Amino acid sequence: MVDNDVERSTFSWEVPYYPSYYFHSTDVPEKFLRNPKQGDTSTTYDLVVGKRTAEAAVTVHNEGNFRDLVKITFNKMDAWLEEDEEIFIHPRDPYKV
User: Fold this and answer.
1) Residues 6+ away with beta carbon under 8 Å from 69
2) Pairing relation of β-strands 80-82 and 42-49?
3) 96 within some domain
4) Nearest CA to 71 among 13, 5, 7?
5) Nearest residue to 39 via CA among 76, 81, 71
6) C-alpha dihedral (93, 97, 77, 28), degrees to nearest 10
7) Is 42 within a domain?
């Protein structure tokens, strides 16, 4: 779904020890986003790929430090891969071995 060479992705530690992925909004094609629900500072979407739907899995931030960044909720996905290896629970901390 997302380009393999995404260079604008980033991590954010919203809670200690559990980083989250954030992608630039232009790296997540709008054709996969459905049913927008507008909040005060963000919009939440269902992520639809083929016949699979992950409800309220994508948050697009409209202002603040996360403006134009997209969070895809880790535990709402069927699987996450980092360098062709499946990861579980949360993204790996790139600063730890």
Assistant:
1) 10, 22, 23, 24, 25, 60, 61
2) unpaired
3) no
4) 13
5) 71
6) 60
7) yes
Q: Is residue 92 part of a domain?
A: no
pLDDT tens by residue, 49-85: 999 999 999 999 888 888 888 999 888 988 888 788 8
All residues at 6 or more sequence positions from 22 whose CB lies less than 8 Å from its CB, including other chains: 9, 10, 11, 12, 66, 69, 70, 71
- In the DSSP assignment, the letter for residue 74 is G
Residue 33 counted as domain residue: yes
Q: How far apart are CA 94 and CA 97, in angstroms?
A: 8
Q: Count of domains in the chain?
A: 1
Tracing tokens 């290896």 back to the chain, one arrives at: 85
Residue range of the domain that includes 72: 10-86
pLDDT tens digits along 5-28: 445 667 677 777 777 888 888 889
Q: What is the largest CA-CA distance in the chain?
A: 39
